[in-house]
Each structure stands twice: as C-alpha cells, then as structure tokens.
Design brief:
The structure is a single chain. This protein is an alpha/beta fold. The chain has a domain of 235 residues: Rossmann fold, CATH 3.40.50. The protein is built from 11 helices and 12 strands. The strands form 3 sheets. A 7-stranded parallel β-sheet has the order 3-2-1-4-5-7-10, with helices on both faces. The chain has a 3-stranded mixed β-sheet with strand order 8-9-11. Strand 8, helix 6 and strand 9 form a beta-alpha-beta unit. Helix 1 crosses helix 7. This is NAD-dependent epimerase/dehydratase family protein. Belongs to the NAD(P)-dependent epimerase/dehydratase family. Dihydroflavonol-4-reductase subfamily.
C-alpha cells in the first residue's frame, strides 16, 4: 500500500508543488484547507501537472484553531508542514503573524506525535538562520540562528524564527518516535500551478509587466519551487535527516541580474522589464515618507549574506537548478497563465 503524506495548507504555492511531486513519486496525499469550499481549487491546480484522481484527499483544519488536526493526521505516515501565515502584521499588533505561525506549528506537532507519525518536515526560512541585519557579507550555515530580538526583523522573518524555535523545543520534550526535520528555503520562484496564490512570484510578474520601473540593490538566494518540493521529500525519507535543519537556498542573484535575465531571455515579452537600479538613498526616502511597506526591505539593501547548502548536498544529495532557469521558467509560466 502506498504511504500517505499530509501536506498542510494545500492551497499555497509551495504546498501545491509538494502535492504534485508526492503524487508523482507514488504517495497518497491528504492536504488541509480552511474550508471545504477550497478543495476544488486545489484539485484544479494540481491537475495541471498530475492526475490526482483517487489519491488526493482533504481535511479541514486551520493553524489558529485546535479543531481538526487530530483527524487530519489520523492514519498518515508523514507530515509536510508547509502552511504559514503571510502578509504584513498590523502596526498595532506585532504578534498578528507570530502567534499563528508558532501556535500553528505546535498544533501540528502535538497531533502528529500523538498519532505516531514517522516524521514531520517543517518549512522554516533561510531568514531564520541569518546574521544580524548589520552584517553585509559572509556565508553561514544551519548552525546559526537569527536573533528574534533584532529590531529590524520583519514580522514574517520573526514569525518563522520563533515558530522553528518553538518546534524544536517541543520535540525536545515530546514522547514517542516521531521525528522532526526543518527545511529553510531562500526566495522561492518558479512555475505556477494557478493564479489564485502566487506568493513571492508576483515580484517577477511586476518586473515583466513593467510596473517595477527600477530595481533596488537587493540580492536574493533563488530556489526553484520544484527543487524545494524535492528537498522536502528527500528530508522526509532520508534516515540521516532526522533531527536536522537543512538550508534550501540557490544562487545569490542581484535583482538587476534578474532583470537582465528576463529582458534578454524573454525576447519581445521582456521589453518592458526595467534594468535600472534605484539608488539606496531613494529607496530609503520613499520608505520613510511615501511607502512604509518598503521599510521591511531597507535593511537588505546592498547586503550579500549567503547561506551554505553543503549539508543538503552531502546528506540528501540535493542539487538545485540554476537561478536563471528558475527566473525564466517563472516568467513564462506567468505569461502562459495570463497572470501579469
């Protein structure tokens, strides 16, 4: 009998590709949604890449509520805890994102350990293993933990760090045989399955559409969503992955390089892409006086911190594809879905 994997947050961008790759690998999949009304959208998205008939089931569960999680994990062999709150936290409520991420992870782990699930693979973020915002150069690995008290951390970055801390603390005292592994991805791009939830891919969409008239001096460690799904499955099955953190980052790429790749690689469809680099001072001024949403990115201006993925290569045999391929595949997928 095929083993069954629970993937949390099935309507999400990363979760969708995890479902696709698990089905391709022969697993049965159950995924959580916040309501039954979201099931068809997940099936439609997954069906663009693989036939899920008879092998994809659903459970209704929400990260903010205890109800549903025991039933969601019942009878499954593994859990990929991919779901996470996204978006900016309200200025008057800094815990608006932290609490769902941290408490949601604990809900999943409590139910998984009680049910005797073999292993939980939790999606964290490379930003949970990064140096202080004042550092501008260097290469770090999984042994480093981001300081959650750094005042420049965005709510998202703080939430991922605290959620992963809470998960490891919980597992240190948990009873039973369930194992935990965490995967820490960089900036996730690649093809989309649906236009309903494209996440960070929207950056490339804005570049191709020409609505981004210049690019800030920010570098990203680009990982393809297909490679991210692959490392989740490798981390789920490798005997040596139990109790480990794995960075899943790709090539460090300045946004100006991304823009040139799009402009040169898309032909006529890339003519609107701006390769003009916006001066750091201008970005800071706009963030301060005109667009407060930009304040979260100003600490990253000019930084070239990178992460080592040697551990993932060595233990899991994981090898991500080139960033240029990911960026172009992402753009072509957005164009094909008329998602600009």
């Amino acid at each position: 009998m095929p083993e069954t994997v629970l993937v949390t947050g099935g309507s999400g961008y990363i979760a969708g590709w995890c479902i696709v790759e698990l089905l391709r690998a022969g697993y049965d999949v159950r995924t959580t949604v916040r309501s039954h009304g979201k099931e068809k959208a997940v099936v439609d998205a997954v069906s663009t890449a693989v036939d899920p008939a008879g092998r994809l089931g659903f459970a209704v569960a929400d990260l903010t509520d205890d109800e549903g999680w025991d039933l969601a994990v019942k009878g499954v062999d593994y859990v990929l805890h991919v779901a996470s709150p996204l978006g900016g936290a309200a200025p008057d409520d800094p815990d608006a994102m932290i609490a769902p991420a941290r408490d949601g992870a604990l809900r999943v782990l409590r139910s998984a350990t009680a049910a005797g699930v073999k292993r939980v693979v939790m999606t964290s973020a490379a930003n949970a293993a990064s140096p202080t915002s004042y550092a501008t150069e260097g290469v770090t690995d999984e042994t480093l933990w981001t300081d959650p008290q750094d005042p420049t951390l965005s709510p998202y970055r703080r939430s991922k760090t605290l959620a992963e801390h809470a998960a490891w603390d919980f597992m240190a005292n948990a009873q039973g045989s369930t194992e935990l592994t965490t995967v820490l991805p960089g900036a996730v791009f690649g093809p989309i399955l649906t236009t309903s939830n494209i996440g960070s891919v929207g950056i490339i969409g804005r570049m191709v559409a020409g609505s981004m008239r210049g690019v800030p001096r920010i570098g990203l460690e680009i990982v393809d969503v297909r490679d991210l799904a692959d490392i989740h499955i490798r981390a789920m099955t490798s005997p040596d992955a139990a109790g480990q953190r794995f960075l899943a980052t790709g090539e460090f790429t300045w946004m100006t390089q991304m823009a040139r790749t799009l402009r040169e690689g898309l032909g006529a469809e890339g003519l609107k892409v701006s390769t003009r680099q916006v001066p750091d001072l201008l970005v800071r001024l706009v963030a301060r006086f005109r667009d407060p949403s930009l304040r979260e990115i100003t600490p990253a201006l000019g930084r070239r911190n990178r992460h080592s993925t040697d551990k993932a290569h060595r233990i899991l045999g994981w090898q991500p594809r080139p960033a240029q391929e990911t960026v172009l595949d992402c753009a072509r997928s957005l164009l094909a879905h008329d998602a600009l």
